[in-house]
Amino acid sequence: MGLNYYQIKKQVLKARKLVIKATAAAGSGHPGGSFSMAEILGCLFYKYLKYDPKNPGWEDRDKLILSKGHASPGLFSNMAVAGYFDPKDIVTLRQFGSKLQGHPDLKCPGVEFCGGSLGIGLSYSIGNALAARLDGKNNRIYTIIGDGESDEGQVWEAAMTAAKYKIDNITAFLDRNFIQQDSYTEKIMPLDEELIGNDLSEMWKDASRWKTGDKWRSFGWNVIEVDGHRTEQISDAIRRANETKGLPSIIIARTVKGKGVEHMEDNPQWHGKAPQQDIVPIIEDELESQFMIAPSIIAGDMSNLGKEVERCNEGRADYIHLDVMDGQFVPNKTFDHAEIQKLRPLSLLPFDTHLMINDPVKHVRNYIDAGSDIITVHAEVCDESSFGEICDQLRSNQVGIGLAINPDTDLPQWSYKFAEMLDQIIVMSVVPGKSGQKFIESTHEKIQRITKDLHDHKFDGYIEVDGGVNLENIGACFADGGRAFVGGSAIIGQSDVRMIIKEFRNQVLDSRRRLLIKKAHDLGGTDLVNKWIDLHVVGKKKDGLVQITKELGFQ
Ligand code: DX5
Ligand code: ZN
User: Fold this and answer.
1) Distance 434 CA to ligand 2 centre (A)
2) How many A from CA of 308 to the centre of ligand 2?
3) Where do the domains of the chain lie, and which CATH numbers do they carry?
4) Under DSSP, is residue 403 helix (H, G, I), strand (E, B) or coil?
5) 334-353: buried (b, 16+ CB within 10 Å) or exposed (e) per residue?
6) Residues with CB under 6 A from ligand 1
7) Which atom of ligand 1 is nearest to the CA of 433?
8) Ligand 2 mean position to 461 CA, how many Å?
9) Atom 6 in ligand 1: which residue has the minimum CA distance?
10) Cα–Cα distance for residue pair 512/286, rounded to 1 Å
């Protein structure tokens, strides 16, 4: 299908919401493992997998084998989003006679494998891969196995077999979420090493303790390890796996069970349990409020931008914000597409290119070719026709579309016609031209107004706040409706980028928790607030929520 980074993100969100809807309606099911593999499925369904939802039996299709079949809500939700059936049908999950059973069943057109009995999906995939080889077909088999499932000896028999027969038309994924039905994998049957205590975050932090990759390598596999919630990493890994000849490939995706909903994250309870209906609207708001941190490298050493890109990588930024200034639209000059092209090989992170230049329509092609993932142009130097042309070029090259407005500019009337296709609106919170300026306070009110306005025009992209964002104002910007936050002097200007990004995230999380508690209160008063808080049993989340509730006067 070949969607861009932003579109994949939106599809993943739609699918996650359907998982919640389906399991809540059924009163049972497996949200935890559906969410840990959500980004893997997003990259497959909307970028790599060859299929035709109108013709599920198409001979040349690729095959997706969900070996960890209990995560069927994740599979079905993506099949609904991809067009195999009406998303409304998702509420029939686990109903008697429905094609959407608790474990995938061939009765559902498009399902390739009756998963559920664990350990056999890889063997089945090998059969399919050998058959494709005999038939001279070049379709691919994508197989998802679980880490709990890896307790099954058959997984390792299959691993040896795939290596022996040099099967290179399978790309396997290990959804490494560290949790199985009853507890942590590293307590029940360690793949890396035994877990003492319950703190998974320690395990995550220390790569020297991960042995699972070595196991697969010793079985003769090409192993690629990624953060399984970063679509840019998964996507790159799939491309590399698919190019590997002569041996089978496995992508070990380190994931978080229940990812996307704080109270489900890293909590073994949510392996197989459904959210209650009164909690669903709060979870939906939580899922809707993903946010991204985008350091702006012009606030660093302009003579060594490569180093600044490395700092963004190490700092675990979400994007890299690239401020292009031409000395005309703004007085300063920074760099152009040639520099971006040089930086591209240094990072997989999405390049968020902000063009502060005149006549963007004339130059946009160069910035596409340089490897931008999204390109944002200024409304002040576009009109309906030139912006339409820019949109066409970006869309046909799988690049995200952004539109920026200066502090004293409002969204022009013509921009609303494009609202549905926009991936991002940059609301400038300083006069563009340089980093290190003070945030203009009236931006808060402007973001709130634009958020509401755009919602009415079916905009489902992100509002990015750019200029003077810091630890003091980022929480309020999030509450206003901002979802991506550029940080020049407040991030790149600091010595420890990783720590400061973490602090940025914590501020936003705090703001988000407040909004969700208010939502619970609006919907069900103190009872629902308490019920919401009580769901947060892992780590110290609960204490924080109690504190916020007191501050809000709800307790
Ligand atoms: C301003 C740029 C911003 C700026 C951000 O013209 O678009 O991206 O560099 O830097 P700070 O966060 O320092 O304002
Ligand atoms: Zn910018």
Assistant:
1) 9
2) 15
3) 5-276 (3.40.50.970), 292-494 (3.20.20.70), 513-551 (no CATH)
4) strand
5) bbbbebbeebeebbbbbbbb
6) 296, 298-299, 321, 323, 354, 430, 432-433, 435-437, 466-469, 486-490
7) 6
8) 17
9) 432
10) 8
Ligand 1 centroid to Cα of residue 293, in Å, is: 13
pLDDT tens sequence for the chain (555 residues): 689 999 999 999 999 999 999 999 999 999 999 999 999 999 999 999 999 999 999 999 999 999 999 999 999 999 999 999 999 999 999 999 999 999 999 999 999 999 889 999 999 999 999 999 999 999 999 999 999 999 999 999 999 999 999 999 999 999 999 999 988 999 999 999 888 888 777 777 777 888 999 999 999 999 999 999 999 999 999 999 999 999 999 999 999 999 999 999 999 899 899 999 999 999 999 999 999 999 999 999 999 999 999 999 999 999 999 999 999 999 999 999 999 999 999 999 999 999 999 999 999 999 999 999 999 999 999 999 999 999 999 999 999 999 999 999 999 999 999 999 999 999 999 999 999 999 999 999 999 999 999 999 999 999 999 999 999 999 999 999 999 999 999 999 999 999 999 999 999 999 999 999 999 999 999 999 999 999 999 888 999 999 999 999 997
Taking the alpha carbons at both ends of the chain, their separation in whole angstroms is 50
DSSP-derived 3-state class of residue 466: strand
3 state SS of 55 = coil
Find out whether 47 and 2 touch, Cβ atoms under 8 Å: yes
